[in-house]
Amino acid sequence: MWITKTDKLYLDDSYLKEFEANVTEINNNEIALDSTAFYPEGGGQPSDQGEIISDRIYKVIKVYKDSDAVVHVLDNNFEGDKKIKGIIDWNLRYAHMRYHTAVHIMSGILFKEYGARITGSQIYSDKARMDINYDLKKEDLPTIEEMANKIIKDDLEVKIIYLKRSELRSDQVRVREDLLPDVDIIRIIDISGFDSQADGGTHVKKTSELKGIKISKYENKGKMNKRIYLNLL
Ligand SMILES: [Zn+2]
After folding, report:
1. Dist. CA 82 → ligand 1 center (Å)
2. Ligand 1 center to residue 104 CA distance, Å?
3. Where does the pLDDT of residue 69 fall: very low under 50, low under 70, confident under 90, or very high at 90 and above?
4. In the chain, what are the domains?
5. Which among 20, 46, 192, 224 would be 20 to 30 A from 84, CA to CA?
6. Cα of 83 to ligand 1 centre, how many Å?
7. What is the pLDDT of residue 167?
8. Residues in contact with 112: Cβ distance below 8 Å, sequence separation at least 6, in sequence order
9. How much is the pLDDT for 171?
């Protein structure tokens, strides 16, 4: 049981690569910090990796959330000074950010054009997978791909905004309502003038950072169950 309430720096600054913090709890090779830029696994986005520097350099293998704490799993038991410096593996994180924004663009198009909802998505550093609750046809894919590339080209701003739970519109909730965090203020990822979704992940600042998108694979897993894979340039 972890009792730390970690300040999650990545929620407001997804471009923060290094930070200083204090170790608040230690359990062998796992530590909680008072604040962190490390993203813990969740919402289809994998955990960050990187380094924590104290008396020596510890490798951060995995990061997860436990209640309000963000727990960092290290390659060795932590025995160092409690003032630390954290450095995230930026190449890995930035790849996750690009694919996370790509998933939102796709999900926005699928919702607007077909009323389709996404039942699951998984982000990787070199691709993303989406499960779609709609009878999407293979013939529809080129049009969807074209729309997504138009949004990338239009260079829309991706903003983080906060809304009261009571102000949320139903189209801003693409996950099951009961999966939303039990808080009054909900974080929204808003792709200006295009898509707005409740979300806890890290995203790029402008859609042009995705460069270009391709639907690389289509799987028919049932009438209302199609799976697609995305690749970015
Ligand atoms: Zn998301």
Report:
1. 33
2. 6
3. very high
4. 7-88 (2.40.30.130), 93-232 (3.30.980.10)
5. 46
6. 32
7. 86
8. 195
9. 80
